[in-house]
């Protein structure tokens, strides 16, 4: 028996119109497995209105609304191309997927996610009767305009390995953060064979753009050795300590109300801890995160 659950948890957020999970002739087939979500800025409308009109012409003269059942029946799947384990849909968006692929003749689960995602973790929990894949990650959205939104479109994988998406639900918020959770489980009908499960959690956090970044290097005695400023898009992934014992990373940005603020983080030289900075490409709504280490 297949069970599907969707949870949307968000702070100061407003639900947007969504669509049920669909397939070519109804909901996803029992053999199709949930393997992730494809994140878009806007709602994906794949409703086949021409086919709907052809099949229901005799009953449309009286007007009315399209039922949820008909919306499911006439919504088309959008298939992806897969190359070397990477999923490509014909729609701009961000992949957040853990599908099964063949590698050296063996089946394996691999994560596929875009460069907009941070703190991505993939784990597989195995029990006597269930194997559950857990996928978590974080996305930073621009809240500078006072509004942010994201649509999480469920992605399924067929028994033949093909991957497709169906229109999903959207959430919107003026500030703060929101969490989208999607899970599915299916018990095996065969004795001695494990069922499968999929748990997906995506946190979307609103942030104001950074004006500039700065790195201050200090000696072990606390003397300031240097101070270097960077544009967000020019922040390197590694900074040489050059004899410094530690550094202060500064992010000149704004708080939720738009008031200027400076976020500071202290990191010791050679530490595994990194400084997360965010860069927003012109015209985009989601940041590209970058982690910088002091070596």
The major sheet is characterized as: 8 strands, antiparallel
Q: Radius of gyration, rounded?
A: 23 Å
- Poorly predicted runs are 9-26
Percent of residues in helices comes to: under 10%
Encode the helix/strand succession as letters: EEEHHEEEEEEEEEEEEEEEEEEE
What is the number of helical segments per DSSP (H or I, 4+ residues)?
Answer: 2
% residues in beta strands = over 45%
Mean pLDDT: 83
- Number of strand segments: 22
Helix- and strand-based class?
Answer: mainly beta
What is the CA–CA distance across the termini?
A: 52 Å
Q: Which outline best applies?
A: globular
What does this structure look like?
- The structure is a single chain.
- This protein is mainly β.
- Strands 2, 3, 4, 7, 8, 11, 12 and 13 form an eight-stranded antiparallel beta sheet that branches.
- Strand 14 and strand 15 form a beta hairpin.
- It is globular and about 75 Å long.
- About 6% of the residues have low confidence.
Keyword list:
295 residues; five-stranded mixed beta sheet; mainly beta; 53% strand; single chain; 5% helix; eight-stranded antiparallel beta sheet
Please outline what is shown here.
The chain has 2 helices and 22 strands. With 295 residues, the chain is mainly β.
List the helices and strands and how they pair.
Layout: E1 2-10, E2 13-15, E3 33-40, H1 49-56, H2 68-73, E4 78-79, E5 81-83, E6 86-88, E7 94-103, E8 106-113, E9 117-126, E10 130-142, E11 148-157, E12 163-165, E13 169-173, E14 177-186, E15 195-207, E16 212-218, E17 224-230, E18 238-239, E19 246-254, E20 260-268, E21 275-279, E22 288-294
Parallel strand pairs: 10-15, 18-22
Antiparallel strand pairs: 1-14, 2-13, 3-7, 3-11, 4-12, 5-6, 7-8, 9-10, 11-12, 11-13, 14-15, 16-17, 16-19, 19-20, 21-22
């Amino acid at each position: 028996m297949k069970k599907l659950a969707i949870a949307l948890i968000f702070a100061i957020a407003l639900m947007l119109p969504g669509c049920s999970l669909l397939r070519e002739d109804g909901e996803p087939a029992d053999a199709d497995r949930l393997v992730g979500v494809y994140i878009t800025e806007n709602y994906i409308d794949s409703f086949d209105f021409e086919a709907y009109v052809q099949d229901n012409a005799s009953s449309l003269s009286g007007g009315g609304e399209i039922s949820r059942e008909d919306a499911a029946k006439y919504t088309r799947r959008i298939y992806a191309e897969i190359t070397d384990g990477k999923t490509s849909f014909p729609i701009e968006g961000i992949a957040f997927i853990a599908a099964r692929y063949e590698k050296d003749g063996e089946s394996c689960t691999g994560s596929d996610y875009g460069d907009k995602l941070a703190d991505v973790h993939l784990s597989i929990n195995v029990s006597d009767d269930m194997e559950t894949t857990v996928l978590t990650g974080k996305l930073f959205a621009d809240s500078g305009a006072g509004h942010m939104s994201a649509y999480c479109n469920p992605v399924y994988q067929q028994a033949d390995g093909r991957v497709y998406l169906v229109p999903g639900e959207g959430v919107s918020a003026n500030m703060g953060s929101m969490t989208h959770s999607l899970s599915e489980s299916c018990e095996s009908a065969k004795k001695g064979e494990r069922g499968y499960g999929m748990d997906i959690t995506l946190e979307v956090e609103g942030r104001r753009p950074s004006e500039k970044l700065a790195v201050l290097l200090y000696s072990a005695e606390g003397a300031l050795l240097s101070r270097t400023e960077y544009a967000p898009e020019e922040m390197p992934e590694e900074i040489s300590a050059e004899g410094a014992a530690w550094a202060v990373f500064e992010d000149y940005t704004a708080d939720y109300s738009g008031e200027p603020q400076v976020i500071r983080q202290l990191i010791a030289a050679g530490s595994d801890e990194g400084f997360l900075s965010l860069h927003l490409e012109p015209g985009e709504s989601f940041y590209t995160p970058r982690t910088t280490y002091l070596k």
